[in-house]
Amino acid sequence: MRAVSDARGVGLVEVLVVIVILGIVGAFVYSGTVMSLRISEAGRQRVEAAALMGEVLDRVSEMNLGTLSGSGPFAYPSESRYSATYRVESTSLGVYRIEVEVSFAGETLSSGVLLVHQGP
């Protein structure tokens, strides 16, 4: 009769330990990916909001600011998903202060101020 060898295969406990470790590693990778996507989306929104703010400042600074001064805020018509408002105030000697705020879902993403001189 032959002797039975001591060679053993991988047992169920070892397989379960490996599955648990892979699950934990997978959970960390997944949460890191989700966080990265959220941060990327937030950055993209801020860049788009800043671009819209620049557009509003450029267009409003070309208007007759004397007629807009002292009233507002005005909603800026935009085809994007962001809402932009601006306000114009006269400081003195034909210098106007244009204040713009761009928001999305109630959160201000970008705001800025521009001083413009419009002489008589």
TL;DR?
The chain is an alpha+beta fold and 120 residues long. The chain has helices at 12-61, 65-68; strands spanning 74-76, 83-92, 95-104, 107-117.
What does this structure look like?
This protein is of the alpha+beta class and 120 residues long. Helices cover 45% and strands 28% of the residues. It has 2 helices and 4 strands. It has a 4-stranded antiparallel sheet. A hairpin with a 2-residue loop joins strand 2 (83-92) and strand 3. The termini are far apart. The model has no long low-confidence stretch (mean pLDDT 88).
Structural class: alpha+beta
Counting H and I runs of at least 4 residues, what is the number of helices? 2
Radius of gyration: 30 Å
Approximately how much beta-strand content do the residues carry?
Answer: 25-35%
Average of the residue pLDDT scores: 88
User: How do the helices and strands follow one another from N- to C-terminus?
Assistant: HHEEEE
Q: Main beta sheet, described?
A: 4 strands, antiparallel
Q: How far apart are the termini? A: 116 Å
Would you count the extended β strands for me?
Answer: 4
Which shape, going by the Cα principal axes?
rod-shaped
